[in-house]
Write a structure and sequence with these properties.
This protein folds into 2 domains: 220 residues, Rossmann fold, CATH 3.40.50; 194 residues, 3-Layer(aba) Sandwich (Rossmann fold). It contains 15 helices and 15 strands.
Length: 450
């Protein structure tokens, strides 16, 4: 049977069934894009709560409306399940699972490997598998390909044969480029880089993504596609480290780094603005560079530049705490025993995504140094457990009286929902890590930038 032709025909007439493994900030919006094009999606996730929410038409991600989910479910285009034995019912399988770091800042591949093991168990001829999880160059070819080639073999004319990639099944890597709640770009409008094991793999993967993405960008191999994603985020990590370092240098020189950046932005070429902050957050920038530094050691290469940027960015929460201590000391108070309110625990403004949020590190350091810490975030009413932290905390109400009870307010995430005038007027001390007060046109005489 010509499996390539069969898949391309199913894609063209929209009878292809897409399975998406991992229904988080990457998998769910991608699945909804397919359903919006009248393509059936079966979502797989081990989190029963997510499965139940989707099947009941509920959203657990702020920027994804319940109307979109309800519409897809009601039209029988979207269903979720924890049952991986249903994988053979799918023609395309897209892997969107996390790729965190372990305690040694090395790649934690358990989510990819456990997912690949499940797929191997149920892989059948005529399926295409694409990996979207950010990882080091070589993952698709070194981990997924050998597993799938050695999937439970099928009988063909009474001989024992293994699956053949590019003929019996198809495998590609296409890095996610999701940026939650980006006002200018969404899943469908961000071009998709695609690298396949064989040319047939590339053609089928591009045809699949062409159904929902504005443009596909085929490259010569999965390694190139994997490296592309790392380059994108290493570029950002290094430039953020640069402005974070300049922030600390210029502060000693009594120069406002934010004013410098605004002035530099007026140059119409050769400069892209990056901004300092309390540390790196999100599912990509704090993690992805270390995937390359780890892999580079296999080739006896030291990635000094990348690692130095990582050190600078990792230090930023500690720098912020130094500014907090200085602010309290200037009012004859010590951090030990002081009441501190952290504003914002999402990793960036106007979202409910806490992955790798520097606010969590700030809370940990403040507590370790004796601070009595509360937080407010309009999008995160309670701090859930994460891989690193187990904070039993709920968002307090942001009122005039509550603000006045704190020795210091630490602005970590600059949500647009905040009433900055009210916060400024009712805070005894305010440390602003985002320059939000100046951006809002508020005089910051009693606020300290960090």
């Amino acid at each position: 049977m010509n499996y390539k032709k069969d898949l391309l025909e199913k894609i063209a007439d929209k009878t292809i069934k897409v399975g998406i493994i991992g229904l988080g900030y990457v998998g769910l919006p991608l699945g909804l894009e397919f359903t919006s094009k009248d393509i059936e999606v079966l979502g797989f996730d081990l989190d029963q709560q997510k499965v139940d929410d989707i099947n009941n038409g509920k959203s657990y991600i702020k920027h994804i409306s319940e109307e979109r989910i309800k519409s897809a479910v009601n039209n029988s285009k979207l269903r979720a399940t924890p049952d991986f034995s249903l994988l053979p019912t799918c023609d395309a399988i897209i892997i969107c699972v996390p790729t965190p770091l372990n305690e040694h800042r090395e790649p934690d591949m358990k989510y990819i490997t456990s997912t690949a093991d499940r797929i191997q168990k149920y892989l059948r001829p005529g399926q295409i598998v694409t990996l979207e999880s950010t990882t080091y160059p070589g993952t698709t070819e070194e981990i997924l390909l050998p597993l799938f080639e050695n999937a439970p073999a099928f009988q063909k004319e009474n001989t024992y044969e293994k699956y053949s990639v590019g003929k019996d099944f198809f495998l590609a890597f296409s890095p996610e480029r999701e940026d939650p709640n980006n006002p200018d770009f969404n899943t469908a409008t961000i071009p998709k880089v695609v690298g396949g094991i064989t040319q047939n793999c590339v053609e089928i993967a591009c045809a699949l993504y062409d159904q929902v993405i504005v443009k596909t960008v085929p490259v010569s191999s999965p390694r190139v596609a994997e490296a592309t994603k790392l380059l994108e985020n290493i570029y950002r990590s290094i430039n953020i480290a640069l402005v974070n370092e300049l922030k600390m240098v210029f502060e000693r020189m009594d120069i406002d780094v934010w004013e410098v950046i605004e002035a530099a932005k007026t140059k119409p070429f050769g400069y892209n603005a990056f901004y300092p902050g309390p540390g790196l957050g999100g599912h990509c920038i704090p993690i992805d560079p270390f995937y390359l530094t780890w892999k580079a050691r296999e080739f006896e290469v030291n990635t000094k530049f990348i690692e130095l940027a990582g050190e600078i960015n990792t230090y930023q929460p500690y720098y912020v705490i130094e500014k907090v201590s200085e602010a309290l000391n200037s009012h004859q108070k010590s951090l030990n025993g002081s009441k501190v309110l952290v504003l914002g625990v999402a990793y960036k403004k106007n979202i409910d995504d806490m992955r790798e949020s520097p606010s969590l590190k700030l809370i940990e350091i403040l507590r370790d140094r004796g601070g009595m810490v509360d937080y407010n975030d309009p999008f995160i009413p309670k701090l859930p457990s994460t891989r690193k932290y187990e904070f039993d905390m709920e968002s307090i109400d942001l009122t005039h009286d509550n603000l006045k009870n704190y020795d210091l307010v630490l602005l970590s995430t600059d949500h647009d929902d905040y009433d900055y005038e009210m916060i400024y007027k009712n805070s005894k001390l305010l440390v602003d890590t985002r320059n939000a007060l100046k951006f809002k046109g508020i005089h910051n005489g009693k606020a300290i930038k960090a």
